[in-house]
Write a structure and sequence with these properties.
- This protein is an all-alpha fold and about 170 residues long.
- The protein has one domain.
- The chain contains 6 helices and no strands.
- Helix 2 runs parallel beside helix 6 and helix 5 runs antiparallel to helix 6.
- The longest helix has about 40 residues.
- The radius of gyration is 25 Å and the shape is rod-shaped.
């Protein structure tokens, strides 16, 4: 097996890697760079997503524990003449604000951090579906799908507990 050596002339490491791929069809250096990136990014991404879901769980428990207070407030709004549809809209807005706040900072910080780490390997090493941007998009898509289901279920429980049923 041929080893990759640092070349001091005008050839780049990318040229050496391309030559190695043409000759043997396998490049251990590219695989090592990809695995190093995955081993660094995956635990950090998992930690950020786990902390976000923990925050969402805490918010859900807090929202449901205050449902009696919300019920009294919405009952008063009903007595003042507000329609159930309008109360549901207000509850949706409140819920959206509550659950957007813990998700936005980790996404903004995490995506910028991951994209910064993606620029560290030699260009061309991680491309296509294996690119950090694609992996980040897929992970965030799956996470927000689970997060949305969680929010919808929590909202349904709160709506059932809070909004007056007699309308």
């Amino acid at each position: 097996m041929q080893k990759v050596m640092i070349v001091e002339d005008d050839r780049t490491i990318r040229d050496e890697l391309a030559l190695l791929l043409e000759n043997e069809g396998y490049c251990p250096l590219m695989e090592e760079v990809a695995w190093s990136t995955v081993m660094l990014v995956f635990p950090l991404c998992f930690l950020a997503l786990a902390l976000t879901m923990t925050a969402a769980t805490i918010l859900t428990i807090q929202q449901l524990s205050e449902s009696e207070r919300y019920r009294r407030q919405f009952e008063l709004l009903r007595k003042l003449g507000m329609e159930r549809r309008e109360m549901a809209r207000i509850l949706r807005k409140q819920f959206a604000i509550y659950y957007t706040m813990p998700a936005v900072p980790p996404v903004l910080i995490g995506v910028s951090f991951i994209l910064h780490l993606a620029s560290m390997p030699e260009p061309g090493v991680m491309e296509g579906i294996n690119s950090p941007a694609a992996i980040t998009g897929i992970v965030l898509g799956v996470f927000f799908l689970v997060y949305a289901v969680y929010i919808v279920m929590a909202f349904a429980g709160l709506k059932k507990n809070v909004l007056p049923q007699g309308l």
